[in-house]
Amino acid sequence: MQTNRSFYPEEVSAYASEAINLLEKLIAIPSFSREEETAADALEQFIKAKGLNCRRKGNNIWLTAEGYDATRPTLLLNAHIDTVRPTAGWIRPPFEATHENGCLYGLGSNDCGGGLVALLQTFRLLSRRDQPYNLIYLASCEEEVSGKQGIEMVLPFLPPVDVAIVGEPTGMQPAIAEKGLMVLDVTAHGQGGHAARDEGVNAIYEAMEDIEWFRTFRFKKVSPMLGAVKMTVTIIQAGTQHNVVPAECRFTVDVRSNELYSNHEIFDEICRNVKSEVQARSFHLNSSRIDPCHPLVRSAIGLGRIPYGSPTLSDQALMPFPSLKMGPGDSARSHTADEYIKPAEIHEAIRLYLNMLDGLHLR
Q1: Phi, psi of 238 (to 5 degrees)
Q2: d(CA 132, CA 136)
Q3: Residues 122-133, buried b or exposed e (16+ Cβ, 10 A)?
Q4: Fewest C-beta in 10 Å: which of 56, 80, 107, 237?
Q5: What is the pLDDT of residues 138-190, one digit of tens each?
Q6: pTM higher than 0.85, yes or no?
Q7: Alpha-carbon dihedral sign for residues 81, 85, 87, 89
């Protein structure tokens, strides 16, 4: 249930302009994962200049709207401060906000500076009115590396959260499911020998059988939203010189899980089928989802938004509560040369967030 309330268009435009100005400042500050301190300082200064009290843990910054009531559900608005390093091929300066043909270019503009500033302004506007929920805004760090000092560290310091919106670039369509990630280090063992003689056991040939299994095996459970579990061999390392039969072959497998399997279940199935030694770097980045009937999802659908399943990973994987991913920009622009977002997308995002959330009953 949602009441019919609206914000003045001029007010939304003014807040959107502020958001774009803030994004320009953040683009000019390198904020690679684990190196976000200066950008976090700038964001904290902006928040305090608006007369808001925020808290900080490391390079994570959060605000809680006044009037917190433990009997009400709590909505978290989250986006990340950090960026990847600029890839090769940039034509425009990655640390300079450049406006061209209705686009704002700069590293982190799309992933996920647009969502970061749009959700902050949404928080400011929503928290000026009484809402039937508690509202928290969190700008987190280390998202691009799923680091231990990011959202995983800060969540215990927040009030209990019932549901979250993650401001990753989705074209403001609600991603109501997201694939998980598990990275495997696999080692095939053989026996060394001289390549000129018929001796040894070639670990590369041993690995080839398992690599073929990873290429062709299909997990039975296919998600209607996320599709099948996807496994991809991405790195292979073996051998020391041309005339030595390698005794060991190591390869890396990128596994993208759907919500029908836990990473542990997938790992166990893999170990039952391959003869190589398999080690998972972690199990904690599981697939995530939110009930399609959740009030957040229904509200988005009511605004003409179309739910979908996302193949890319975000901090949703570290959230032990329902969440959906919805933010300005386009995921295809992320981690690319000359990354950009359109200022019009930020304006539209704030408008849509407000229409979706103002007065919304989460239970």
Answers
A1: -165, 155
A2: 13
A3: bbbbbbeeebbb
A4: 237
A5: 999 999 999 999 999 999 999 999 999 999 999 999 999 999 999 999 999 99
A6: yes
A7: positive
